[in-house]
Specification:
This protein has 265 residues and is an alpha/beta fold. It has a single domain (2-10, 19-264), classed as 3-Layer(aba) Sandwich (Rossmann fold). Helices cover 35% and strands 18% of the residues. It has 8 helices and 9 strands. Strands 1-9-8-7-6-5-2-3-4 form a 9-stranded mixed β-sheet, with helices on both faces. Strand 5 (149-153), helix 6 (165-176) and strand 6 (181-184) form a beta-alpha-beta unit. Helix 2 crosses helix 3, helix 3 (80-94) packs parallel to helix 4 and helix 5 crosses helix 6 (165-176). The longest helix is centred in the N-terminal third of the chain and has 19 residues, at 44-62.
Length: 265
């Protein structure tokens, strides 16, 4: 069994680290998200904005602290995980990176929040986005292989079964790129509850999970797929967790982005 401990992602903090946060299942996290929107007025775009900003910061840390002149390819899925990736693409561009986004589905098939993020990204003048079906295999391989890092924002915690079709194709090229991959919430294709992969799954160098770690990321298989594990704050109130009988502690006392380290117990 694995548990977690804290480390600062960039600088050491004074005092004792906070107690590790509890892990949650996909069903619990879905209920957290529902309550955030329905009962506490923390809307999806608000959470997506924070996720995108934190994800860009993890990429910056993984690339040595400076994004200027670095090329990042963002692999975008059709759901809210993809929307978080598109938000991250904007933050990456604002921090100096050259950004390309590859969409696994046509823009019209993105979730509503994802379409909003795409429109904002294009509205800032970013020349960034292409659909996988517009790229031949060698073109897709060349784009990903030329990147300094690849962001995996294809599949989130709502994974059901093995990836298929263009999603599977894109994930295959992400894995074959030979570039460091930073995944959003869970590595695409990894079951968030068990850490196992029912089919093709991303092998990440680092993963940013959101609000609370997912149970599968704390298993041996999940940690092997996730690489370095970061936790990002979505600004959710303790009263929300109390409704679900979850005691989150204060994982973000030292800042909105923390590193989780595995301990064998």
């Amino acid at each position: 069994m694995l548990s977690t401990s804290f480390a600062s992602p960039s600088v050491s903090s004074a005092g004792s680290p906070p107690a590790p946060p509890p892990a949650v299942t996909a069903a619990q996290m879905a209920e957290v998200d529902r309550l955030a929107v329905d009962r506490f007025g923390v809307d999806l775009l608000q959470m997506m904005e924070l996720a995108g900003s934190h994800l860009a910061e993890v990429v910056r840390l993984e690339l040595g602290g400076d994004l200027r002149g670095r090329t990042v390819v963002v692999a975008v899925g059709p759901g809210n995980n993809g929307g978080g990736g598109l938000a991250a693409a904007r933050h990456l561009a604002n921090r100096g990176a050259r950004v390309h986004a590859v969409l696994a589905r046509p823009a019209a098939r993105l979730a509503e929040a994802g379409r909003h993020q795409l429109a904002t990204l294009l509205g800032m003048g970013a020349d960034c986005c292409v659909m996988t079906y517009d790229l031949r295999d060698d073109d897709l391989a060349a784009m990903l292989g030329a990147a300094d890092a690849v962001v995996d924002a294809v599949l989130g915690y709502s994974l059901r079964g093995a990836p298929r079709d263009e999603v599977a194709r894109l994930l295959g090229f992400v894995n074959g790129s030979g570039r460091p991959v930073v995944s959003l919430d869970v590595p695409s294709g990894v079951d968030p509850d068990t850490g196992q992969a029912p089919g093709l799954a991303v092998a990440a160098a680092a993963t940013l999970t959101l609000a609370l770690p997912k149970t599968g990321l704390l298993t041996a298989a999940g940690r092997a797929a996730a690489g370095k594990l970061y936790l990002g704050d979505l600004g959710l109130p303790a009263a929300l967790y109390a409704r679900l009988g979850i005691e989150p502690g204060m994982p973000f006392a030292a800042g909105p982005l923390v590193r989780l380290e595995a301990l064998d117990v």
